[in-house]
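User: Study the chain.
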Amino acid sequence: MESLLLTIGFIGLALAVLTPLTKVASLVTLASFTLYFYVIGIENWIPLALFILGLLLIVFEIFIPEFGIAGIIGAILLIAGLYWTVGDVIQTVRDLSIAVVFTTGLVAYLAKKGYSLTNVNKLVLQTDVPSSSDDKEKKP
């Protein structure tokens, strides 16, 4: 049950980033991760904070891929948050592996269908600055 909720959460996150279904997928992600931590039964907020910070750093790494260290730290924090919640290395690795495999399959399928990060281009400033060679060509 826990691995299914975690998988649904990661799939919702991928759909929120790659498709126009941002609002619905974000709600599914939020509900799934909330149910995951509710079913597991967290005793304090530290594992949840580690998990959320890890997810945010991984998403940051997706938008700014040159940085590198953010994704590594994000993955470590995400795994630490899950391990601290579950308390078992084998179950943590199993749940996370299932979620990552299914999410990777979905991302590959969506990429094949033509979806990409272009849906989030409205977050990025796009400017067209003409080069100096273009100005010289236009003058008579």
In short: Residues 1-113 form one domain. The helical segments are 2-18, 22-40, 46-63, 69-86, 89-112, 132-138. Residues 23 and 116 are 17 Å apart (CA to CA).
